Amino acid sequence: MTIQTHILGYPRIGAKRELKFACEAYWKNETSQTEFLEKAYAVEASNWQAQIDAGTSLLTVGDFVLYDSILTHAVRLGVIPARFHEASKLNQIDQQFYLARGRAPNCSDVAALEMTKWFDTNYHYLVPELDSAQTFNADFSELYAQVDRAKTLKQPLKVVVPGLLTFLYLSRIVDQQQSSEVQDHHKEHDCECGHEHAELAADKATLQFVDALIPIYAKLFDELSARGVEYVQVDEPILVLDLAPEWQAAFERVYHLLQRRDALKLIITTYFETLGENLNLAVNLPVAGLHIDISREKAGEFFWKKVIDQLPSHKILSLGVINGRSVWASDLVKLDEIVQTAQKTLADRLWLSTGCSLLHVPVDLSSETVPSNIDGKLAFARQKLDELVALASGNIYVNEKLSKAAEHSFDLVAQSRPEAFEIRFKAQQEKFNLPLIPTTTIGSFPQTTEIRAARAAWNKGQLSDADYETAMKKEIAYAIEQQVALGLDVLVHGEAERTDMVEYFASLLDGFWLSKFGWVQSYGSRCVRPPIIVADISRPNAMTVKWIEYANSLSDKIVKGMLTGPVTILNWSFPPAHRTRREVCLQLAEAIRLEVSDLQTAGVEIIQIDEAAFREGLPLRKADRPEYWDWAVKSFKHCSSSAKLDTQIHTHMCYSDFKDCLAEITAMDADVITIETSRSGLQLLEVFHQQGYPNAIGPGVYDIHSPRTPSSENMRSVIDGALKTIPAERLWVNPDCGLKTRNWAETKAALTELVKMAKEIRKELEAA
Known about the structure:
Keywords: Amino-acid biosynthesis, Metal-binding, Methionine biosynthesis, Methyltransferase, Transferase, Zinc. The protein is α/β, with parallel strands linked by helices.
């Protein structure tokens, strides 16, 4: 008997990033909305065809969106913050882009929605903003149109909808005149999916909207049923978190009110972890079925058996057997043992699926030239469809090429800098003699058309190594020249030679393989190509020294050396099958430690080791976090341990919730940390105010992901807030993140305002 198969979602960028290029052309007014949608719907149709060709039982509809699914759902619900009041003259397509980018045709530029990490992935979602007196004006016509397009394919459908409670949990209440209850929520609910809801008031602040949303969801389900839809995948991934009792009670109430007695069947979908303490709650919700992600279970845990034991006898259980976040081929023989065991109890109530959406892996392996040492070991999204159908149909085969665990474990005695921060910082201040609140940037400058053209020609063999180096040095010289003209205090070389902050280092370290078309969506039109760790990591040669040395020779000002930290390289790569994450991270730390040493020898005095993904890999459950923090902190301290007393170590973090890990960030003991603050409404900076931070800090004063240019007054609000608790001697000024996605006109305009603001405040401080 063939088992029912479906997937939770498919990559929406297109096999060759067609959606990315269509979006960007539309934003530049190079194409009309009609032309843009034609290209977008072609990707949608291709995704459906891939499922049909593979033979999945159900066609997944509704997972394809133009920017982000939570953003799309917010706009469909009419959740448009007050500052976007001009959005009323836009259709839903442009409304989404307006909220995400802060810019739309014939509208004033405003601050975009906050963007933060989707659970423990490198994908970013847009955080919905709810007014304390929020009303909802729902319009799901675009979703219905998507269903109608899919129905022409004559395939059984399953429609994907973000769950009511997950949507609220991931939202933020923002109000000019907030009640104290909502203000408490604002402080507690920093919209990182692993946050705690420690206070009842914080939960009530968001849960107050449940009653308003229930009839909207009921009407949505009724309309889908009327259109002949039999199954709705209701994504409620927060069921894998440590939920407060108020949220658990809300689940029982909401789904008792939303239970359907017609032909429509609701499947509650969870992923990224087991249900944990929410097991009894989840299996007993009054819905037709439940999906669990077994690919994330710990070895020997067998939590899926507990689910089967407690699942009511009339319910469907969808087992997420194919890992939606791994690029390694599945062991079908091993998975078949699970399927056979589950089928004995569940019979035709057993469905098979991917653990989570395939959004988190590249689209198709067939376009790649895979090296012989890993040939047959990989599976991208399209290949995972085949694995899923093969498993369901019993077409099991033994893959002799699957990676085996390493024969010997790797260990490293992590080192750290011996001197305390106070001693180091005093020596650094005396050495550098920088002004109060020195200005700098995070590292990258615009990746211009000329840079991309030179790199493309070099990759095709049309440009020699010498000519490519000359071209990159020209771009570095321009970046230094512009920074000097702008009046920045500490310069960067601009990273012209780097495609990506992780990919670049992976290309120079042994143990990685870089695919050619293995793109994965990070946010909006931003795609990354995560390296794949295929063997033990080592550094054969220096990776950055010649570029920084050259930049240093162009100015008397200090030029920072720019490195990516071990935790971020690990978290933004696909991990290996043969080593633990801890082992790999320590191997990376040793490679970066050697690079720090070589940079110092070359005369580099400030070295930035970016750990943008430091918190990203944090386990979703509190009980699992101490182990992660142990090796993550040790790895960073090890890679900076070769720094001398007066060598200043910077690190950068962005788009994360710091309130539950400030102790670990402090333990990293970087001399200076630069953080994102502008898009999150200064809430991340508030954490440093509340808990204290002993080292130097550079709060980001403007959002680089938006094309709008903020005024110096806008930027000043960040620094004025920081000065309330952070001494001026320990305060830096910088943008939120790197500037590679901006153009030079935008960059110079924003940095001009940044330097102007810093000089004004510096003058006031010196006068005082």
